[in-house]
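Lecture 7 notes: from sequence to structure.
We start with the chain below.
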Amino acid sequence: MKKRYYGMGLLSAVAVMAIAAGASAQNVPAEFVVSGETAAEILDYTTINLATAERIAQACERLATEENVQVSIHILDNDGNTVYMHRMDGQGWIQIATAEMKARTALMGRIPSKDRMNRVIENPLAEFQQIQLGFFPNSGGLPIIVNNQLIGAIGVGGSAPRVAEGWSDEICAHKALTEVLGPQPPLLEDLPQPEQPEPANPAPVPTFRIANPPASNLPPEFVVSGPAAGRIYDANQISGEAARGVAVACRAWAAEHGGTMSMFILDPSGNFVHSERMDGQVYNNMYTAMLKAQTALKTKQPTSVRAAGLRNDPSGMPRSVFWYNFYAVSGGLPIVVDGELIGALGVGGGAGGGDEACAIAGLQAVFGDRVTVPVYPG
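Predicted structure tokens for the same chain:
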């Protein structure tokens, strides 16, 4: 019988009805999940909170730094919503996207994504079925389980495995979970990859390198720089640390104003750089934050410009939505520093005093008066 990672018990309908929300809350320490009045508002006492997701992600990021590698980290709640996402500088679209796919695979299957990979190794034809079901059969995704309760999932992508040396995306996730949550079940065995026959006439593989990494006129703390910029041929996209700083400042601003927020930060190519949702935020808050960021990036304007334009001339609504897929609600801003576009951000959820105001507070906290922000007449 195949070794399983976590045992999954099935509750009868009667047992499910007997479990009250308060009882569910007692199964998982409150420090790890959304709790109290906030949990009551979203009708969920078993979803990972922002503080725990942030600690896990930062632990994995620190481990990657110690190994001199870069990773992308994506943490989902048990409903599949993004709680915390961060990409280290120099990561490209493939690494960023696979981190999310690994997390979703672990969440859907309630088992490590390596289990799906091992099935494909044992039977290569199974990969078609795995993909049809929406699984990404690759190692690096783990369910996040506390006291037999699923509270979320993590996916890590971006680094080449050195399993014999104790390193892989999955090991990074596992060590981070152990550090934050305590002892974790052992990882699945790594099955040997099948040997591929040598092609009769191998195609020549070109090299594609630049002599020197690109440079930016902006301070290095604002943008990806050095070898990381050389890996992506881009020195004018917002750095991971700057993006995190914007989010933390907006988070503090929202809390100060008695609210919460969701945020997505994109690079100029539209890739995720950083994302987080404060406790109590739900799907529509997170999704609108992403749509606002994407709209601000495409238009190179604040979404409040589109919102005001449609309010003044509603006839533009059909083409704005149908042809352009713009989300014309205030809260999205292009990130323009010293006249240079380095990304875009979107804030959703109200933020206590307005999504756009929260976004501006975050940007100004990091970039000061060097960042361009909306200015209203009068």
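Points to note: The domain at 30-181 is CATH 3.30.450.150 (Beta-Lactamase). Residues 1-25 have pLDDT under 50 and may be disordered.
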